[in-house]
Design goal:
Helix 8 (141-171) packs across helix 9 (176-210) and helix 20 packs antiparallel against helix 25. This protein is 78% helix and 0% strand. Mean pLDDT is 77; it is low at 338-346, 475-480, 532-536 and 553-559. The protein has helices at 2-23, 29-42, 53-71, 74-79, 81-106, 112-122, 127-134, 141-171, 176-210, 216-236, 241-258, 264-301, 308-334, 351-359, 365-372, 387-413, 421-445, 452-472, 480-506, 512-529, 532-552, 563-587, 593-612, 619-648, 654-676. The protein starts with a helix and ends with a helix. It contains 25 helices and no strands. The longest helix has 38 residues, at 264-301. With 678 residues, the protein is an all-alpha fold. The chain has 3 domains: 2-413, Na+/H+ antiporter like fold; 421-474 and 619-664, no CATH class; 480-616, no CATH class.
Length: 678
């Protein structure tokens, strides 16, 4: 039960972190997950999960690296093979040697072999952390491929170097020729083992399909078990399980390309299943990392033998050395960049690209898992020297690398958005069309025989809006401030509608029940229009208004709206539209001319539609409008999801997201009014 509770809490934290990430998009989700893990670990009755390195590698790292190998472009990796190997192998061993000696010089109590071990476990970048941060940072495509390839390969070189360094620290024996030969055998053997086993698994699936066993569930189970088999078999053979998982992923990617159309249903199920698994595994990696940090820091901070400021200073210096060394190594090998790539790719990287590469070397949970795998005692039975300090330094460097990358990479990678209003509008128009096209796809997926008419109508509306955007551009051609003015005018018009309906209530032209229903609709429209800053204020205002009506008219029974009630609301809306138009004409001036025209046009369109609409509604009509209302919600959610996905891929920036979200809010408010006042 305790284990179930721990897993349940961690999964809840993953969901909470993504919700928080939507409200604070400038903080990467991995950092939020680490923070939540730290908070839970600090709670007196919170989770205290022991990190078992072997279980961690097989359960988390193997499937994540398998998936990365499966989806990393192979042609681009091959083009970048030389710089990838220089970073994944050359930089790792240079880091082990130079940083290891520096750590031993700074902290003599850490033996030289143990210092080499710490440098080794700090040398590889974490593929999971790199992928998680890359989603929110607009990185040059070539650099991103280089980092992905490096992260796929350097885990093996770093862990092998760590293994030999720790073995030397435990036994006091080290042989460079033996270590070199072992490294080659373990690495090459891991790649060959992974590829061979992957081919066997592919052959098994082919045999099963030829025997008529094309059950999607069974084939999906084989896919899920594959990375674990690759890792465990390679480790049992003494090879690199990590490289075996990567090689297996690449082989399965080749197989997937060849049979992509033969089992379409399996591909759909596979993509959906893996997306859920990767979402959970990625989140669990960082939550578990956060859970370990308080325990690691408490041991050091509570030990009187250590000066807290000194050990933190050591961690900062080690992190700085890693950054400087990575910069120097990258600078050195790029001076000979004519050796790499095609003639079109011979231009040398600039200073900004080198700094980006340096700070992109994010360390993650692989480093901490390796540090925890350090044995407790030496061969002679004495405690491993400074084991707790080594784990603390590794954890602190991980945090520093994540924080530095989160803070600096967006600044370094951000391109200046076009100052020209026309260029800005062209860019936003393309984004707007993308999100609306995503809405059309989502509505298409909801289509069936019963709602075919509603689907056709909603898609036709969206296609018309896309056509208008292509012909006339976005509605706020005078800039983002124009959109804000238009929203303020919409709120002013809603206030006038509210005053009008209250006047009708006072003069007994409508009942309390009708007034309540109408005011509820206005509140919801205003909530839709409210941005993040005004949302909570509007929500409080809406709830307070509900309480006022409840206390004043607590004996009034609110029944379900009938056809006659809807007719009263329709006529009331016509009156409020006229009042809103009149008020907008009063406040219309030179400064808000274009925005006022847009809002007045909206109310005129609503007024004309309501005047022409029939007074009665059949059951078939009601079903049609209900379906259309539901499809509008689906479309708007699809727009928001697509916009968020574009932002997380780094294709758009926060300013663009804010502008397009405002346009989506206005469209949602208009559709909601139409659905409510049909």
């Amino acid at each position: 039960m305790e284990l179930f509770l721990a897993v349940f809490i961690m999964l809840t934290l993953i969901g909470a972190s993504n919700v928080i990430g939507r409200f604070v998009p400038f903080v990467p989700v991995p950092l939020i997950q680490i923070g939540l893990g730290i908070i839970v670990a600090l709670v007196p009755s919170g989770i205290h999960l022991e990190l078992e390195p072997e279980l961690f590698f097989v359960l988390f790292i193997a499937p994540l690296l398998y998936n990365d190998g499966k989806h990393t472009p192979r042609k681009e990796l091959w083009k970048l093979r030389a710089p990838i190997m220089l970073l994944a192998v050359g930089l790792v061993f240079i880091t082990v040697f130079l940083v290891g000696y520096a750590i031993h010089w700074m902290i003599p109590s850490i033996s030289l072999p143990a210092a080499f071990g710490l440098a080794a476990i700090l040398s590889p970048t974490d593929a999971v952390a790199v992928s998680a941060l890359a989603g929110r940072i607009h990185m040059p495509k070539r650099l991103m491929r280089l980092l992905e390839g490096e992260a796929l390969m350097n885990d093996a070189s770093g862990l092998v170097a760590f293994k030999f360094a720790i073995a030397a620290a435990v036994t006091g024996v080290f042989s460079l020729p033996y270590a070199t030969v072992s490294f080659l055998i373990i690495s090459i053997g891991g790649l060959l083992t992974g590829a061979f086993i992957a081919f066997l698994i592919i052959g098994l699936r082919v045999v099963l399909r030829r025997a008529g066993m094309e059950d999607v569930t069974m084939h999906m189970l084989i896919q899920i078990l594959t990375p674990f088999l690759l890792y465990m078999i390679a480790e049992e053979l003494g090879m690199s399980g990590i490289l075996a998982a990567v090689a297996g992923g690449i082989v399965h990617a080749i197989e997937r390309d060849r049979v992509e159309t033969s089992m379409m249903k399996l591909n759909v199920v596979s993509n959906n299943t893996w997306s859920v698994l990767l979402f959970l595994l990625n989140g669990l990696v960082f939550v578990i990392l956060g859970l370990q940090i308080p325990h690691v820091t408490n041991i050091i901070f509570a030990d009187p033998a250590f000066n807290n400021y000194n050990v933190i200073g050591y961690a900062v210096l080690i992190f700085a050395m890693l950054i400087v060394l990575r910069f120097a190594w990258t600078f050195a090998f790029t001076r000979g960049s004519r050796l790499f790539g095609s003639k079109e790719e011979q231009s040398m990287p600039g200073f900004r690209m080198l700094v980006l590469t340096s700070f992109s070397g994010v360390r993650g949970a692989v480093t901490l898992a390796g540090a925890f795998s350090i044995p407790l005692v030496l061969d002679d039975g004495s405690p491993f020297p400074e084991r707790n300090l080594i784990i603390f330094l590794a954890a602190t460097v991980i945090l520093l690398s994540l924080i530095a990358a989160s803070a600096l990479l967006p600044l370094l990678s951000k391109k200046k958005e076009a100052a020209d209003t026309r260029e800005q509008e062209k860019h936003d128009r393309q984004v707007q069309i993308k999100v609306m096209t995503a809405a059309i796809r989502a509505v298409h997926q909801e289509s069936d025989e019963e709602n075919e008419a509603a689907v056709t109508s909603v898609i036709a509306d969206y296609k018309q809006w896309i056509q208008e955007i292509r012909l006339h551009g976005l509605r706020w051609r005078n800039g983002p401030s124009s959109q804000e003015k238009e929203t303020e005018l919409r709120r002013l018009a809603l206030s006038e509608e509210r005053e009008c309906i209250l006047d009708m209530l006072e003069s007994r032209q409508i009942s309390y029940e009708h007034a309540r229903q109408f005011l509820k609709m206005l509140d919801q429209v205003e909530l839709i229009l409210a941005n993040r800053i005004h949302f909570w204020r509007m929500l409080f205002k809406m709830l307070f208004g509900r309480l006022q009506i409840s206390f004043k008219h607590k004996n009034v029974a609110f029944a379900k709206m009938s056809a006659s009630d809807m007719e009263v609301l329709r006529k009331s809306k016509i009156r409020t539209c006229e009042a809103a138009i009149s008020e907008l004409e009063k406040v219309r001036c030179k400064e808000n001319e274009q925005e006022a025209i847009q809002v007045i046009a909206h109310y005129n369109l609503m007024h004309d539609r309501l005047v022409r609409s029939p007074k009665a509604e059949t059951i078939q009509d009601k079903r049609y409008y209900d379906q259309k209302k539901e499809l509008h919600w689906v479309a708007v959610q699809a727009e928001r999801n697509e916009l968020q996905a574009l932002y997380e891929k780094g294709e758009i920036y926060r300013d663009t997201v804010g502008r397009i979200r405002g346009i989506i809010r206005e469209r949602e408010a208009s559709m909601f009014e139409q659905d409510e006042m049909r």
